[in-house]
Design brief:
Radius of gyration: 34 Å
Number of helices: 24
Main location: cytoplasm
Order of helices and strands: HHHHHHHHHHHHHHHHHHHHHHHH
Structural class: mainly alpha
Shape: elongated
Protein name: Serine/threonine protein phosphatase 2A regulatory subunit
Distance between the termini: 84 Å
GO biological process, one term: signal transduction
Organism: Sesamum indicum
Helix content: 55-70%
Number of strands: 0
Subcellular location: Cytoplasm
Strand content: under 5%
Amino acid sequence: MWKQILSKLPRKSQKPDQDLQRNPDSGPNTPSLGSGRIGAANPAAKRASAAVFPASVIAGIEPLLPFKDVSSSEKMNLFISKLSLCCVVFDFTDPAKNIQEKELKRATLLELLEFVSENPPKFSEPAILASCKMCSINLFRVFPPHCRSRNTSSGENDNDDEPMFDPAWSHLQIVYDFLLKFVTSTSLEAKVAKKYINHSFILRIIDLFESEDPRERDCLKAILHRIYGKFMVHRPFIRKCISNVFYRFVFEVEKHNGIAELLEIFGSVITGFALPLKEEHKVFLWRALIPLHKPKSLGIYFQQLSYCVTQFIEKEPKLASSVIKGLLKYWPITNSQKEVMFLGELEEILEVINMTEFQTVMVPLFCRIRRCINSYHFQVAERALLLWNNDQILNLIAHNRQVILPIVFPALEVNMQNHWNQAVLNLTLNVRKVLMEMDDALIMSCISNYQEQQEKMNVVDEKRKEVWEHLETAAASLKPIAGNTAVLVTH
């Protein structure tokens, strides 16, 4: 199509005087179509574009005309014509291919972006249809996310951790900017546009979040957020689709590039939830957000996830105990970095939890914290001990010290005797001092109980040692069976 247009462009004439007579507006400094600038009065270009876009389709409007050269009543028709012109897509894997055509399309896209940014007249239904069609062709059909950002046909890529940047971004960025301005424009009526910005369109927008280009995901985040804000009728569908992405990520594939961006959208959505929270929102917290703590790649989106969870608890504090139970369920036993993140999120939750909810989970919670205090990974132990530096958490502990102190005090004693890291030892001493100041009598009782438990354990260890020694002596006194050699295992 573009070759057909460019092939009919005027070439350098051998009779410039005759050309000037035919077209007095043209001259030696008039920009050509191939330069990427839009020629306003080129009859050959008009004939070429008219051959591709018949007058019956575009109401006789020449798509290469600038908007300033047509009347206000014709601008919407020209807008549709330019959108049709931008429905042609190119292969950007070869930079030397279709250079002039790509430049022409880019210039036209910039014109369209400028038009929708300057408070245009109300968009007609054909204009909305043409806009959605142009965005769909450029974003969905030709460049799906799984093949647009990375070529995976030859097997696994050696640089999977490095972001891949789309070679077509010079065009895609303008299309995304156009779509964002189009959706947010006051000239777009939601009750009309919802027919075209429909479930199918939104679903494909969400599918694009798998793109490996971070610039693209950032654009998609802004667009989907604006669609959610403008089209109230689509809000339940958007929430359902995002939930499905999370479910598939957690329970099936554990690979998706856009989890952080989708959580960012949901973070702002949660702040707008009305009280009391609907049951569907609580289900989303329990079935989607809390299980998102399970994947190994938690660190990529942990900040956004933690924010969403905290927003839920601030909306309805009774959810705090359910969230803590969920964290304990998915607690990482063999991943120390995730343990540090979990402890950080626990601190944020404990800062806003009420006393009643805290008391329902404090026993299993501090049993887990006790194990973290004794962790041989010094960062985990440090993070657990630093919880005592938080005044709100210290207040919760003080009001429930009869239950909590007997749980955690033995862990402090074990650290003081066995831990290898000096920073952990110093923090342990500080926490022990704080607890002594909190309730000296209770701590003395804990010390006494700890010593009794140690004595009992020593007795058990001695008995076990005696049993092994007896077994070893008995085994050594046995005569070996002919043909077999006895092997004595010492302990």
